[in-house]
């Protein structure tokens, strides 16, 4: 698949046979494409190699019967009670346990892209329907996703579609379609927004369903981004997708979320051209991206500040936590990432904006809460983990946990201090190991993936 | 002082001129006697506490024009009697439950800014709250708040710090939404203490030391790791400071057990602990009193007044009162005429209260007329953005013009 690509192309496929495939490479891939990984998963991916691991991540895997029944139950509870916090629990459960973790991670990316909040929508039914739409096309067609969003009930409520009438066009949705969903600021004019708003007039909501209100639709001529005609909403979406800015905008966001916070211009351009070549088919795009030289280059590794979900769920998966989902939801909200309730239509900006002195303390305090209380659940007992793994010396133990939690990204002096803790601390091996895990998780390095 | 109360009062507001009559009212005389405060504290020491009264407070039953016959006429069922009000002027009185406010007023520290609102008032909670929070009535979809923008102006200086926080709100209020920083919402002061986990004292002590040491490493300036390490260090230092304060901190006043009281107690603690936050946001909800208003409103005003009184006394005892400006606001007042279910519907102009760090308390501006109404609602004469502008320019030392987009005339409360 990489035959036609020129040398020096950042998206040239990483040759793991020639360049090697290590435990750390696997750790890097899994932490970026899932919400963290257990040691067993990393071992498995190391063994399986890059190709097979990408296959597992990108082709639909059958869910276990256990997963299916818990998933159904949690969802049902949310729908029956109409309580959004149950829906949050449901999604967290999927993020942690689905056999298709990349789908969940990319769904979160789209939830942030099409940031819609229950604070205004106020309906579990509509939020779950939007989530289903996202999940269906998460690693599918962006074209279908964008077009589906324009008729999605939660979105119609969120961006006031019923206020968009022939005589008084409401620009809310039209503006966001261009600014946040497809093109980005600077790639359209205010006039384009006014024209697009007219094209979306009458895309209304009736009886909790999308409804084309002919009487409120403006059937007259419009000119949008150089195209003139009796355009409607579907045309607006096609015109946007046709703009060079669209794959570019997506490429930049994908790179910043999954690869490196400040992507190179050339890398963005290259990925944009691949998105165009694949006609917004995201499976192929992700396959190329996650298998690329760029993705495995040293400059992009350990470069992303973890989102609260990556921080918390990553620790759960790495340490085998049987979680309390309700307290977890509260924690995530105080850390600034409350799923189904993003702060504004712009979503979570992420990166350094996750971090301030208050959230840093919360992040630091999460470590002891997880390792030495049952507030967020119960982690696998380190004593038995280490025993079954045959880790003997203190150096072994430090190496095991710094590889698992930091992909080995630890300065010698820090490593020494961690070993010092194991030597000096009181109690049995299990207790000392819990203290060690807490220390590793409170290192600034743990905030990075 | 050049700007005296009197020159202000004769020029007050965007629309109204206050006529004082021949003899200055008694409260003004006392205010004039109060000694002018010498100096404001340095900018970085100044604190703003914003108290939201969510739901639309019935301003007319909060500061009551008890001598106006129109008042009793409009409020036959829920009007407050002449003898019950706590008089703060010749024809104005506070709701009988607001004894705490009355005390602060008597000390010359409570400013009552009357007739505050904005043109073409919106009577939807959602929209009007957005307007107050964004301070941009003309922009339909705002992405940031007035305080958020004030922080964005100096984003570099604030990076990694906590210049503002919302306490006890479900989500971050739009007023504090920034584009270059993120403002935390916290539920409890305990969140600011470093937790060391279970185990022996020795282990905990060892971990405490190592957590600090592990974060205290040199790294490439400007890198994300450097940013994370510095922020961790700031967080640890602050937590340490706060721990000391909370260990020794004794509230000098008895806070009421109610929600607002406990939130303000936390704010006082954070101020006393030098937490480094300059802007605090707290909210008191339930003011949407469409029916059977009297009991609910009385409870809310009791909570408001007693909590703020305790906060004020606490600050005073800790000699912090000159560093703190507290302001209350609500998205709208309520209709002058009571409705058929002994309640009131959404209205327009209302008052704002400011517990001022200086000596500029007292009544500011005139009570809006009860006969010259707009769709049954009080008309404003002072734009709320004038109050914001005053807070920004005269207290937070941030250019109000940059934040609000226009120059608004100042109101003389700080």
Write up what this structure looks like.
The complex is a heterodimer of chains A (about 450) and B (about 425). Helix content of chain A is about 60%, strand content about 5%. Chain A has about 450 residues and is mainly α. In chain A, the strands form three sheets. Chain A has a two-stranded antiparallel ribbon with strand order 1-2. A two-stranded antiparallel sheet of chain A has the order 3-4. Chain A has a two-stranded antiparallel sheet with strand order 5-6. In chain A, helix 7 packs across helix 9. By secondary structure, chain B is of the alpha/beta class. Chain B is built from 13 helices and twelve strands. In chain B, strands 1, 5, 6, 7, 8, 9, 10, 11 and 12 form a nine-stranded mixed β-sheet that branches. In chain B, strands 2-4-3 form a three-stranded antiparallel β-sheet. Chain B starts with a helix and ends in a 10-residue tail after the last helix. In chain B, about 55% of the residues are buried. Mean pLDDT of chain B is about 90; it is low at about 1-35. Chains A and B meet through helix 21, helix 24 and helix 25 of A and strand 7, helix 8 and helix 9 of B.
Secondary structure category of chain B: alpha/beta
Average pLDDT reading of chain A:
95
Distance between the ends of chain A: 29 Å
- Number of DSSP helices of chain B? 13
Cross-sheet strand order for the largest sheet of chain A? 1-2
| Rg of chain A computed from alpha carbons, rounded to a whole number of angstroms | 23 Å
Number of strands of chain B: 12
Write down how many β-strands of chain A occur, each being a DSSP E stretch of 2 or more residues. 6
Largest sheet of chain B, if any? 9 strands, mixed
Shape of chain A: globular
Low-confidence stretches of chain B: 1-37
Q: What is the string of SSEs of chain B from the N terminus onward?
A: HHEEHEEHEHHHEEHHHEHEEEEHH
Gross geometry of chain B: globular
Helix share bin of chain B: 25-40%
- Helix/strand class of chain A: mainly alpha
Question: Largest chain interface and its two residue counts?
Answer: A-B, 56 and 51 residues
| Ends apart, CA distance between termini of chain B | 13 Å
**Largest beta-sheet details of chain A:** 2 strands, antiparallel
Give the assembly state of these chains: heterodimer
């Amino acid at each position: 698949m990489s035959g036609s690509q020129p040398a020096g192309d950042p998206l040239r496929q990483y040759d793991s046979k020639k360049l090697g495939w290590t435990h750390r490479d696997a750790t890097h891939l899994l932490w970026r494409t899932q919400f963290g990984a257990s040691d067993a998963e990393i071992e498995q991916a190391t063994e399986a190699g890059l190709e097979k691991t990408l296959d597992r991540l990108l082709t639909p895997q059958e869910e276990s019967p256990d997963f299916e029944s818990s998933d159904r139950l949690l969802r049902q509870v949310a729908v029956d009670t109409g309580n959004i916090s149950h829906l949050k629990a449901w999604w967290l459960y999927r993020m942690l346990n689905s056999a298709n973790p990349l789908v969940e991670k990319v769904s979160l990316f789209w939830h942030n892209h099409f940031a819609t909040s229950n604070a205004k929508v106020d309906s579990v039914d509509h939020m779950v329907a939007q989530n289903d739409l996202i999940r269906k096309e998460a690693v599918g067609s962006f074209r279908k996703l964008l077009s589906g969003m324009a008729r999605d009930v939660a979105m119609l409520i969120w961006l006031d579609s019923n206020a968009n009438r022939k005589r008084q066009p409401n620009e809310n949705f039209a503006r966001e379609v261009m600014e946040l969903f497809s093109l980005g600021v600077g790639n359209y004019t205010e006039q384009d927004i006014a024209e697009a708003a007219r094209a979306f007039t009458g895309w209304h909501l009736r009886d909790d369903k999308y409804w084309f209100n002919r009487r409120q639709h403006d059937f007259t001529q419009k000119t949008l981004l150089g195209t003139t005609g009796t355009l409607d909403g579907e045309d607006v979406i096609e015109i946007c997708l046709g703009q060079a800015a669209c794959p570019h905008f997506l490429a930049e966001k994908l790179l910043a979320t999954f690869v490196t916070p400040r992507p190179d211009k050339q890398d963005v351009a290259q990925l944009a051209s691949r998105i165009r070549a694949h006609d917004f088919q995201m499976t192929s795009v992700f396959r190329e991206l996650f298998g690329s030289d760029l993705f495995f280059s040293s400059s992009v590794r350990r470069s992303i500040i973890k989102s609260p979900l990556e921080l918390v769920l990553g620790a759960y998966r790495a340490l085998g936590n049987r979680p309390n989902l309700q307290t977890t939801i509260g924690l995530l909200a105080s850390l600034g990432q409350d799923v189904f309730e993003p702060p504004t239509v712009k979503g979570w900006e992420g990166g350094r904006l996750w971090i301030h002195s208050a959230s840093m303390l919360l992040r630091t305090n999460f470590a002891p809460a997880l390792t030495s209380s049952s507030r967020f659940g119960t982690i696998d007992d380190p004593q038995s983990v280490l025993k079954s793994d045959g880790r003997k010396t203190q150096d072994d133990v430090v190496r095991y946990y710094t590889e698992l939690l930091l992909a080995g990204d630890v300065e010698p002096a820090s490593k020494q201090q961690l070993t010092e803790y194991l030597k000096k601390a009181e109690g049995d091996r299990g207790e000392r190991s819990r203290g060690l895990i807490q220390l590793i998780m409170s290192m600034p390095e743990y905030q990075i993936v | 002082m050049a700007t005296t109360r009197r020159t202000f009062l004769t020029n007050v507001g965007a629309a109204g001129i206050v006529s004082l009559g021949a003899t200055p009212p008694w409260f003004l005389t006392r205010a004039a006697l109060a000694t002018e405060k010498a100096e404001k504290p340095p900018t970085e020491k100044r604190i703003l506490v914003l108290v939201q009264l969510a739901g639309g407070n019935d301003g007319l039953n909060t500061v009551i024009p008890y001598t106006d016959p129109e008042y009793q006429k409009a409020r036959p069922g829920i009007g407050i009697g002449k003898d019950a009000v706590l008089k703060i002027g010749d024809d104005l009185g506070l709701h009988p439950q607001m004894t705490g406010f009355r005390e602060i007023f008597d000390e010359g520290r409570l400013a009552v800014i009357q007739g505050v609102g904005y043109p073409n008032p919106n009577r939807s909670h959602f929209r009007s709250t957005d307007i107050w929070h964004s301070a941009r009535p003309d922009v339909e979809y705002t992405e940031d708040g007035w305080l958020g923008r004030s922080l964005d102006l100096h984003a570099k200086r604030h990076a990694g710090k906590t210049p503002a926080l919302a306490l006890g709100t479900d989500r971050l209020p739009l007023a504090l939404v920034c584009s270059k920083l993120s403002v935390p919402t916290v539920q409890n002061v305990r969140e600011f203490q470093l937790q060391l986990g279970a185990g022996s004292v020795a282990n905990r002590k060892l971990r405490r030391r190592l957590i600090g040491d592990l974060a205290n490493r040199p790294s490439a300036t400007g890198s994300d790791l450097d940013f994370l390490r510095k922020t961790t260090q700031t967080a640890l230092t602050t937590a340490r400071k706060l721990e000391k304060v909370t260990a020794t901190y004794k509230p000098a006043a008895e806070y009421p057990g109610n929600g607002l009281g406990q939130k303000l107690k936390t704010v006082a603690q954070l101020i006393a602990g030098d937490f480094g936050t300059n802007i605090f946001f707290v909210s008191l909800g339930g003011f949407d009193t469409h029916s059977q208003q009297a009991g609910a409103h009385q409870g809310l005003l009791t909570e408001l007044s007693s909590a703020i009184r305790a906060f004020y006394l606490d600050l005073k005892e800790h000699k912090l009162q000159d560093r703190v400006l507290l302001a209350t606001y609500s998205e709208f007042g309520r209709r002058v005429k009571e409705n058929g279910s002994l309640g009131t519907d959404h209205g327009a102009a209302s008052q704002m209260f400011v517990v001022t760090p200086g000596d500029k308390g007292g009544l500011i501006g005139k009570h809006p007329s009860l006969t010259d109404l707009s769709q049954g609602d009080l008309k404003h004469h002072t734009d709320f953005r004038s109050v914001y502008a005053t807070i920004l320019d005269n207290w937070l030392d941030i250019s109000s013009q940059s934040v609000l987009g226009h120059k608004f005339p100042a109101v003389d409360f700080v």
